[in-house]
Design brief:
The chain is of the alpha/beta class. 40% of the residues lie in helices and 26% in strands.
Length: 223
Amino acid sequence: MTTIYYVEDDLSIAHSIKEYLEQHNFHVTIYTTIADARAAVKAMLPQILLLDWNMPDGQGDRFCRWIRSEWKQLPIIILTVRDDAKDIVAGFEDGADDYVVKPFELEVLRSRILALLRRVNQVKETRLRCDDILIDTEKIAVFCGKDEVALSQPEYQLLLLLMENKGKTLMREKLLEQVWDVNGSYVNDNTLTVTMKRLREKLQNPMCIKTIRSFGYRMEDTL
């Protein structure tokens, strides 16, 4: 199910759109301020963001710039009244992908969402971040703060898997399979424990990598 964060202070509009989209296999969470939406995005990324241009605590351009500084591929659709449509040019410069002018047909919004998801799913994010940890997948480089960290291949693959699934608990069996078994390497369960210990030490024991006892590990923002 596709997750959507909907930033809208008019709850009557927000709830009607939420109800419609959830009838079409979307999961929608409403945020009535940019501050709340910002905190939610830091905790866990949605698959798409709907953003009302004028919010009580600011306009959408600043929020778009902040998102693009961290997550270049997060799809953003701005919802705006016709009088503000001219300002959307700035929104696109700051990172919005599309906009819909109010009032609009709900089916039009859904079709725009689906089209945008199809487009962005063809592009894979190359810079992944959690707290102070950054992976640049094009360079195959890992940074902790401003310092580059040298990782072994299993350590890098383990971190990449956790980062790509940020907010989700990954079972130990899945990690063993994805990091080692796919390369035809026979390992035991202790291999994962040792690799994780070394990875944490190299990353200065970050709070964002959590052990889920008896299950596996999860990576999530804490800052």
